[in-house]
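Data card: per-record layout.
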Amino acid sequence: MSNDRFKTLYQKGVVTRHVVIVDSETGVNYLFVCEASAGGLTVLLDKDGKPLVTPVEK
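The structure for this 58-residue chain is written out next.
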């Protein structure tokens, strides 16, 4: 199993961080937001409410 399954696509901020992560096996995109010792992770959705998927090379 590879340690590179989750890749960072975008990150912004220092105190409050916004990070977009892609699962390299499924292509599903996630948003992680953290501030101080609190944080949350959610799947990003497209305009139809379906998971946002980045094409994955096999």
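Known properties of this structure: The longest strand covers residues 16-23. Residues 2 and 56 are 15 Å apart (CA to CA).

See the next section for split statistics.
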